[in-house]
Amino acid sequence: MATGMSRSKKSQQDQKIITVEPTQRNAAHTRARILGAAETEFADHGFDGVSVRQIALRADVPVALINYHFGSKEGLYRAIFEMRAPMIVDQRVAGLRLAEMEPERERKVEMIVKAVLVPNLHMRSTEKSSNYARILAREVSDPKSLERKVIEEYLDPIAYKVMDALQRAMPDRSIEEINWGYQAMLGVMVYTMADMGRISRLSGGRCDPEDEIATANHLVAIMKAALLHARVPTPIQDE
Amino acid sequence: MATGMSRSKKSQQDQKIITVEPTQRNAAHTRARILGAAETEFADHGFDGVSVRQIALRADVPVALINYHFGSKEGLYRAIFEMRAPMIVDQRVAGLRLAEMEPERERKVEMIVKAVLVPNLHMRSTEKSSNYARILAREVSDPKSLERKVIEEYLDPIAYKVMDALQRAMPDRSIEEINWGYQAMLGVMVYTMADMGRISRLSGGRCDPEDEIATANHLVAIMKAALLHARVPTPIQDE
DNA sequence: GCGATATTTGAACAAGTTGACAAGAGTTTT
DNA sequence: AAAACTCTTGTCAACTTGTTCAAATATCGC
Q1: Is there a contact between A191 and B186 if contact means CB atoms under 8 Å apart?
Q2: CA–CA separation, B106 and B52 (whole Å)
Q3: Is residue B9 part of a domain?
């Protein structure tokens, strides 16, 4: 754990002799450090906005190590999702399980909304994983994500579960209403997660996504109201 | 206008003599063609995902022309916003003006929602400018947009106008509620505009952002309900 | 027609890109 | 201790990046 400021080799001359900590060997630790650096860089600049060199520089490892451990730049990118996605999926599933037990309709919908929003909003305000939140937000608006298939692979299953829960909570709604409701929820969440200060700027500092509690309160209220009270004018035509 | 398939110089041998249309000169036309190509490419791959050469190739002009006309890659990018932004801002302003005249509260909120959503949703389904919709969606989730200041410059003013209108329509709401409501509206809109098929995929084809009318009906209903019925549990603490 | 100006062109630039390699260093197994 | 293994390293070649340049060509005012 306490391996913070060793491996300062490039910054000093060629005094290979003194090596207080002789270039520690620990593949898992190295992988983790690269992943951490990659998360930060990808979040800040996007997949195409960073070079593996920048990531290697931040992780303080030679470039070649990235290809050794992750195969390619995209391999590294996918590894981030493999690491983080289960975390929030599990939290949502757990939240849905709780909602399932709630008998009262309004309360049930609110719990479903919370099950979806809260894990991500919490992640966004957690320093360690806030970067992943921004990567995720970017990924959904990136056409290349289709090629990468990373959203489809990791996030589609939980999406179906959420919509099933919504449908059971509100059986009177059409499939279209359920779907658009879910998409709206995602949109609000993703937009908030990706925010880089515009919300705070526009509100004169009154609204701050960093304030996890207040943000969750507002967004949950908004989406609960949206799901419970929205009816489309003409749900007639189907095909 | 009918300058489609001339300038085929590279694809053929060095028969400079025949030049049916001897390399037409028209700065405005050239600029427009570069802008069009850039819009498509930026929408598909993002600012960092495209090279100026790809854009030049699509526009079928030499690379150097891009720098000549737009100064730099970023200059070209900004030129897209300078061309498109006024278009949708004007539409929103007009919509707000109509809403202002409506006396009834619920109807007024609905008209404000429509004033915000409809211009963009329409743009998204218009082939010519659907690319700009995707660029816009990407820009709001790109941290570099802060450097570029393009959102702030072109879109913040209209945001304030919308929030003012909302506040006047619902004077009982707190500033936080108005702000989060507006942000939610934007989030839903942007997410839908940026969609690359996930909505259709998840809904089994039942929801399609290309279907402008149905999409607008659902999203307007959702945001109208959200704005009219959402109340935060604890709007007590302020500072 | 002539000259000034605006536009277009291909080539070149320096800087940075990715992925690959052989060789080295550390750890584990024999 | 020696061999086999995993992990690390600096360097390399091939290529792309955004931008600039001088020269060529077209357009317009006179």
Answers
A1: yes
A2: 49
A3: no
Domain that residue A150 falls in: 84-229
**Most confident of the ranges A225-239, B132-146, B186-200:** B186-200
Assess if residue A43 is contained within a domain.
Answer: yes
Q: Is B220 left (phi over 0), alpha (psi -120 to 50) or beta?
A: alpha
Q: Establish whether the CB of A37 is closer than 7 Å to any nucleic acid atom in strand D.
A: no
* Residues A163 and A127 occupy one common structural domain: yes
Question: Using one digit for the tens of pLDDT, what is the confidence trace for A174-232?
Answer: 999 999 999 999 999 989 988 888 899 999 999 999 999 999 999 999 999 999 999 98
**Distance between A44 CA and the closest CA of chain B, angstroms:** 6
Residue with tokens 């819009």: B39
Q: What is the pLDDT of residue B196?
A: 81
Of B183, B218, B231, the CB nearest to A221: B231
Do residues B47 and B95 touch, judged by C-beta distance below 8 A? Answer: no
Tell me the shortest Cα–Cα distance from B175 to chain A, in angstroms.
8
Give me chain B's average pLDDT, please: 86
d(CA B195, CA B185): 16
Tell me which chain A residues have a C-beta less than 8 angstroms from the C-beta of B131: none
Q: How many structural domains comprise chain B?
A: 2
pTM, two decimal places:
0.84
Residue from B192, B36, B96, B107 nearest A188 by CA: B192
Q: Do B64 and B164 fall into the same domain?
A: no
| Chain B hits for A142, Cβ within 8 Å | 46, 138
What is the CATH number for A130? 1.10.357.10
Question: Has residue B37 been placed in a domain?
Answer: yes
Distance from CA of B161 to the nearest CA of A (A): 11
> For the domain that residue A48 is a member of, what is the CATH number?
1.10.10.60
Helices B212-229 and A212-229: angle between axes, nearest 10 degrees: 120
Residues B184, A219: C-beta atoms closer than 8 Å: yes
pLDDT of res. B146: 66
Q: Inspect the interface and report whether the beta carbons of A232 and B224 lie closer than 8 Å.
A: no
Q: Which of A70, A99, A127 is the last residue of a domain?
A: A70
